[in-house]
Every structure is written in C-alpha cells, then in structure tokens.
Design the sequence.
C-alpha cells in the first residue's frame, strides 16, 4: 500500500520530468500540467478536500510571488542599475587586476565575480555574464560556457539573496537561519574543492600543477567565508561575503607568490579609487543594512513588529497543514524590501537618473516574468504535494532504505535541479520529502533538507535551462548536447563523492 501511494505521489514529478526533458515542453507550461495532475490526485486518491487543495495551491503561489518573487525582482533591478552605468565594468576589471594570468583571472571572474552576481540576480545571470567575459579573456566558447556553468552551480545554494534557503524553510518548517548554516557547511565543503575543478577544466593537469596554491587559497577563503557568514551573520549575504574573502585573500597571496611563467602577478587597474568605491557601494550598502537589521536589537524588533500574520483560509491548524496554516507577510523585513531601498540609494550614488531607474524596473520585470510565474506555479505544486500527504508517502517509501537513505539524499536534490534548473524550486519540491524520510529513519531532518540543497549544485550544469542559457550566451545554440556530455562527465563523479561525504555527516555528524 505504501509503495502504491508513493508511485501515485511521484506521478506529478515524473510527469514534470518527462514533459520538460523528453517532450520539450516549456517549464512554466509543464509545471501547470503537473499542478493540475497533483490537484487531481490529492483530491481523488489522497482524500484532500477540494477547497483545501485549491487553498494550498493558492498559498504556495502567493509565497512564490512574495517574498520570493519580490526579492528576485529587486535583485535583478539592482543588477540592471549597475549595468546601466560604467561601474559594472569597474567591478569586473577590479577582479581581473589581481593577476595577469588568464587562468587566475578566469577563476576570479567566473567564481568570485559570478558569486556577487548570483547574490543579486541569480537564475542564470552569472552564467550569461561571466561566459562572455571569459571569451573576452581568450577562452574558446565551449570552455567559457562550461567554466561559467560550474562556477555558478557551486554558489547557487544562496542566490539570489537566500531564496533557496527561504523555500526550504517554508516547506520543512525549520528556521531559515538554521538551514542557512547547514547549507553553508555543505557549500563550504563543495567550494574548497571547486577551484581545483575549475582549474582542471581551464587547463587540465598543467593548471593543477602550476596553480594549485591559487586553488587552495581561493577554496579555503571562499568556503570559509561561506560557512562563517551563513552560520554566524546573514545567510542572504553568503555569496557576497565569500567572494570578498577570496578576492582579498588571493590579492594578498599574489603579492607574495607569482604563478610560473608570469612576469608580474598583478596588472595595474585603470580605474580610480573613487570609481572602485562607487562600483562596490551597492554591496557595501547591502551588507551594512543587513547587519543593522540582524544585529541592532531595536531595529530588529521594529521590523518584526511590522510583520503581518494571518490564518490562511481553508487550511486547518492541525495535521500536515499546520506548518502552512499561517501566512507571514514580512513586508518591511523582507530581503526584497532591503534590496529595493539599497537600489534607490545605489542609483543616487552611481548617478542613475530617475527615468533610467524606472526603465530598469521595467526591464527587470520583463526579465523575470516567466521565471517568477514558474516559481509561483512550482511553489503551488510543492504546497499541494506537502499538505495533501504526497511528500509523506514519498518520504515513507524512501525510509524503506533505512539510514542508508542518507547517502542518496543529495542525489534527490541533484535530480530536482536537473529537472527544474533551480535550487529554489528543487528545495520546494523535495525539501518536505527529505524531512519526512529523515524523521522516519531517525536522522536529522534539517541536515538532510540542507543536503538536498547542496546536492543540487551538481545538477545545475546538467539542467536543460542552464545549458540553453549558456549556449545562447556564447553562440553555441544547438550544441547543448555537447555541453551536457562535458558537464555530466564531471558532475556525476562529483555528486557521488558528495553523497558519501554528506551521508557520513548525516549518520555520524
């Protein structure tokens, strides 16, 4: 009986996978079809009242719009504002000026600068931007696309502005700060290794032999910065903090060490100190505002007092619906509102006119409209799956594996990102199932939920959406299959290794 329920519960997810990967249906349309199937199964077979099922979907969709869509919208707007000025290129040149070695520049551009872009944009924007920048450094299109894909994948657990963690917190019921710290732990493990993967992709064994000190410095500083920021500061700023840590650490290191065959480790930046200050001011402001909101007690309490909470109509406060029965409208303390205020201040600092800033708002809305709709529909699907009992049925079946499920937990997250192209939507779909399975077998549900998020890192370079975006950015449209084969060759063994590590942590950590 449990097995049959699990098969039926998996039907909407299997349908979503087949529609996207086999039949080539656009993601937003495929999600709607899967949502309709989930509603049918929830009411007909899982005995959820029709009104409750529809109410579940409505709440999920609203959560996808606010705070998640609001956060993404303002993050993209901030990115648009900066790109409308000359200061966006100043940021890129500042990273490149650390070394004259093109391979080191590639690490800084794709990994460090890409992390900053991920923090304030996400959804493929870092891949689109950094792949073009890598081509300008002399890398061939295929290599530039692969490097950009892997670099973005390794930082996708926190961008933009922690939305993947927010989605995970909503469907599991655990505090976002707690989950952010655990995702930070797993991310740190991945990103200590990732610079060496990027070096191997850039120039094979020669890069590993000549530049392993660079990989070590970047990996430790980046991973350490991720863990410390996510665990002790603000998980929303993890990608920015880790990028700054690695840039500073590598800049200091290259003053003491020069890569083999490079006459000088650093090339002078053509930009003035003032230009650099203005260029990085949005990130400085963002960090400062988050610090005030997080650590200044009166401000934190004032923001909390502005939150609006209400009982969501149609959902009981008991049973599986209990964690979802209250909707929190944290309009003032939302990351999106913080981003909006920082965007207004940044526009003034960078000299962006009011007309251009408003135009950027329109451009941001146009850019995210399909992605935002997809996320809202995906959250609606996730809520129906969780509240109807489908996630519990899937978790119960997964629990049949016993504590050995710990070693497959990250693979579930990998599958979710391959399927959807997004760590956020993968967390929304499978976070509840991971927590249910962990509870049944006596493992930490929050730890396996975090492993779901981290496992998704290795699915990003293999997802159809990411491959299509990378291919179009570097002029390889139609050659996504070639990019997929290269990505899979690296992603599968990396995932296998991470499954062993995350499983061991879940069992004995």
Sequence:
């Amino acid at each position: 009986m449990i097995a049959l329920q699990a098969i039926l519960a998996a039907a909407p997810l299997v349908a979503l996978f087949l529609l996207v990967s086999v039949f080539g249906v656009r993601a937003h349309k495929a999600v709607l079809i899967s949502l309709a199937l989930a509603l049918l199964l929830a009411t007909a077979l899982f005995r959820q009242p029709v009104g409750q099922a529809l109410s579940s979907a409505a709440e999920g969709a609203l959560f996808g719009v606010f705070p998640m869509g609001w956060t993404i919208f303002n993050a993209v707007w901030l990115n648009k504002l900066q790109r409308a000025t000359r200061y966006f290129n100043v940021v890129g040149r500042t990273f490149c000026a650390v070394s004259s070695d093109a391979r080191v520049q590639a690490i800084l551009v794709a990994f460090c600068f890409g992390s900053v872009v991920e923090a304030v944009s996400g959804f493929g924007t870092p891949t689109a931007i950094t792949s073009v920048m890598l081509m300008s450094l002399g890398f061939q299109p295929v290599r530039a696309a692969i490097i950009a894909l892997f670099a973005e994948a390794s930082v996708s657990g926190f961008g933009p502005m922690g939305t993947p963690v927010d989605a995970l917190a909503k469907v599991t019921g655990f505090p976002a700060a707690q989950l952010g710290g655990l995702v930070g732990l797993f991310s740190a493990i991945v990103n200590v290794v990732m610079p060496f993967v990027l070096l191997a992709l850039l120039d094979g064994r020669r890069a590993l032999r000549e530049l392993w000190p660079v990989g070590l410095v970047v990996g430790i500083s980046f991973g350490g910065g991720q863990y410390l920021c996510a665990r002790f500061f603000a998980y929303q700023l993890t990608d920015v903090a880790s990028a700054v840590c690695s840039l500073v650490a590598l800049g200091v290191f290259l003053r003491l060490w020069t890569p083999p065959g490079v006459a000088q480790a650093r090339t002078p930046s053509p930009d003035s100190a003032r230009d650099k200050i203005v260029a990085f001011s949005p990130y400085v402001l963002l960090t400062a505002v988050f610090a005030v909101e997080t650590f200044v007690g009166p401000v934190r309490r004032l923001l909390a007092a502005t939150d609006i909470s209400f009982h969501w109509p149609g959902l009981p406060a008991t049973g599986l619906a209990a964690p979802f029965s209250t909707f929190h409208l944290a309009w003032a303390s939302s990351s999106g509102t913080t981003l909006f205020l920082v965007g207004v201040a940044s526009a003034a600092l960078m000299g962006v006119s009011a007309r251009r800033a408003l135009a950027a708002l329109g451009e941001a809305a146009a850019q995210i409209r399909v992605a935002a709709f997809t996320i809202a529909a995906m959250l609606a699907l996730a809520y129906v799956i969780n509240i109807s009992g489908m996630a519990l049925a899937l978790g119960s079946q997964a629990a049949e594996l016993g504590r050995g499920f710990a070693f497959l937990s990250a693979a579930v997250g990998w599958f979710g990102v391959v399927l959807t192209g997004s760590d956020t939507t993968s967390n929304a779909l499978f976070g509840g199932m991971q927590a249910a399975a962990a509870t049944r077998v006596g493992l930490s549900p929050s730890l396996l939920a975090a492993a779901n998020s981290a496992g998704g890192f290795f699915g990003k370079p293999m997802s159809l959406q990411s491959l299509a975006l990378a291919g179009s950015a570097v002029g390889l449209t139609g050659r996504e299959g070639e990019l997929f084969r290269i990505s899979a060759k690296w992603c599968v063994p990396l995932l296998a290794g991470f499954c062993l590590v995350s499983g061991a942590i879940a069992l004995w950590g």
Notes: The chain has a mean pLDDT of 86.
